[in-house]
Structure formats: C-alpha cells, structure tokens
Design brief:
The chain has 12 helices and 14 strands. By secondary structure, it is α+β, with helices and mostly antiparallel strands. The structure holds flavin-adenine dinucleotide.
Length: about 280
C-alpha cells in the first residue's frame, strides 16, 4: 500500500488537490471503509486527500427553523451523544448508535457513511425517512441532493470524484410525527443489518394516517423506499389488519441478495415482518 497522504487545511485546498490528482486521488474522512478497501487491494489510489485537518465540517446543531444540520465530518459517536440530535429525533440517534462498535463509531463519519453507499448501513434509511438532504461542494460550486437518491447502486453514488459532502440537513419534523429505526440482527450485536426499517408516521386529526415514509436497508442495491406500503396506509386508519396487509406489499418492493445473512427469500420475508413491527410501533 504505497500512496502520498495529503492533509489540506481548507476545503478549497482539498478540492484543488482532488482536481489535480483526478482518478489517482481518493478522499478520506474517518478511513474505516477506505483503509479496508486499500488493504484488500480493491482501491489503489496514488494520493489520499484527508478531510481531517479542515475546520468547520463537524458541527451538529439545530437550525433556527427547528431542523438539524450535521457536518459531514461529525462522527457517528458524536451524533449518538449529541443533545441537539436527540432533541431533534431519538430514532435518528438510534440509527447512528446501531452502527458496529464504539470503536468504529468513534472514527466513522456521517459524510463517509453516505459516500460509501453500502446498502446495509444504518444511518442512510433513517436519514432518508426523515427527508434529509446533503450539501455537496466541488470546484463548480455547491449543490444539494436528497439522501434518498444519493446511492445509485451497491457502493456507488451520484457523486463525482471531485465532489465533497459538507453537511447533512434535516428539515423540521411536523408536530405529531412519530419515528422509529429497527435493525434485525440475528447473528452478533455488532453486525450489519440483515434487514433494517426506518419509518416516520403522522396522524391526521381524525386518526387516519396523514403522512408516512418507510425506507428499508440491506434488502436491495440501495436503500429502498416502500412506496406501495406507504400508499396503502396514507388516508387510512392503521388498524392491525390494515398494517398487516400493507406490510405484505413490501415483499414486491425489495430486491435482496442471497448471502451469509440469509437467502433472498428469507430476507424478503423478514422485510415484511420488520415493516409490520415498525408500523405497529408507530401506531400503538
Ligand atoms: C468493522 C466494520 C463494521 C461496520 N459495521 C457497520 C454497521 O453495522 N452499520 C453501518 O451503518 N456501517 C457499518 N460500517 C461501515 C461504516 O459505517 C463506514 O465504514 C463508515 O461510515 C465510513 O465512514 P468513514 O468516515 O470512515 O469513511 P472513509 O472510509 O473515510 O470513506 C468512505 C468513502 O466515502 C468517501 N468520503 C468520505 N467522506 C466524504 C465526504 N465528506 N464527501 C464525499 N466523499 C466522502 C471516501 O472517499 C470513501 O470512498 C462498518 C465498518 C467497519 C470497518
């Protein structure tokens, strides 16, 4: 593993280095995914550009409107321990606290997690369920993108090599909204999810469902938004029967792989079970 390591002190310097190195350069944040890929020989950059020495990328704070802004270099552990994040959404904190071990959470960053785009990761489904957007900087300026559309395939995002995620913005949560993150871990407590479900639900005054968002992890090439399940619930009273019938629709929305955590059929069935549990938790 031979490469030149660069520690720029400003985002502009980092962007200039990424432009200069082109495909020979690779960005690094906490390094938990990058170093593994380099050790396995799957990634061989000639230049590594670290974000660690750039100030101002790791804050976590409520916005004046009642949302939450998380800097891309905030660690998972920082989100887990943040009063601002907990005050915004305990389920968001649950999703970050579900990642691997404290050691990984102390090092892994929010931006690195999103850019790594492993569909079994915990934060992306919850961030998508909460309708989060990322801010991205490049030499061409700034743009925003929904977390929901960032990943386009296994370990692949819409980011180009010279784009840096600088922050994640979560909008204010409407009063009366409930949120939940559930991770199915049949093997060890520090494993990746076999299936995960992040959901938010808001009741209307007449006890029907005014709005619902359901996003699953680990059961497709990217996180999967369960739109058919959502449509079956929106405007309806979420009785146990209605929830059971709606959750069954998720089987046709997911696209899992056979792997060491189970067969595709098993994961499809677990997606149904855990979607029903998430909806039950939100409506009891
Ligand atoms: C042993 C182990 C267990 C794990 N278990 C879990 C788990 O249970 N749940 C879970 O969710 N995750 C798990 N992970 C994955 C972990 O969450 C990711 O490795 C981590 O979030 C990546 O963040 P990082 O800061 O270390 O990224 P890096 O390794 O530094 O970077 C990852 C990728 O993102 C790019 N990148 C980094 N920052 C930015 C940025 N700001 N803008 C644009 N691109 C960027 C890098 O170029 C690289 O391609 C596990 C990882 C390990 C090693």
């Amino acid at each position: 593993m031979s490469y030149d390591y660069h520690e720029p002190h400003s985002l502009d310097d980092a962007l200039a280095l990424l432009t200069r190195f082109g495909d020979d350069g690779h960005l690094m944040a906490g390094g938990t995914a990058t170093v593994l890929l380099m050790r396995q020989g799957l990634l061989r950059p000639a230049h590594v550009v670290s974000l660690r020495t750039i100030d101002g990328l790791s804050g976590i704070a409520r916005t004046p409107q009642g949302g939450l802004r998380i800097g891309a270099m905030a660690t998972h552990r920082a989100v887990e321990r943040s009063d601002a994040a907990r005050g915004y959404s305990p389920a968001l904190v649950d999703a970050f606290a579900s990642v691997a071990t404290v050691r990984i959470r102390n090092q892994a960053t929010v931006g690195g997690n999103l850019a790594h785009a492993d569909p079994a990761q915990d934060p992306p489904p919850m961030l998508a369920a909460l309708n989060a957007t990322i801010t991205v900087r490049s030499p061409r300026g700034e743009r925003t993108e929904a977390v929901e559309t960032l990943a386009v395939d296994h370990f692949t995002t819409s980011l180009s090599h010279d784009e840096v995620i600088t922050s994640v913005l979560l909008p204010p949560i409407l009063p009366g909204t409930r949120e939940v993150y559930l991770k199915f871990l049949p093997q060890t407590a520090d494993d990746y999810a076999t299936v995960s479900v992040a959901a938010t639900l808001r009741f209307a005054d007449d006890a029907t469902v005014a709005d619902v968002r359901i996003v699953l992890g680990a059961v497709g090439p990217t996180t999967i938004r369960a739109k058919r399940v959502e449509d079956a619930l929106r405007g309806a009273r979420p009785t146990p029967e209605r929830i059971r019938d709606a959750a069954a629709l998720v089987r046709d929305e997911v696209d899992p792989l056979d792997d060491l955590r189970g067969s595709a059929d098993y994961k499809r069935e677990m997606a149904r079970v855990w979607t029903e549990r998430a909806l039950a938790a939100l409506t009891r």
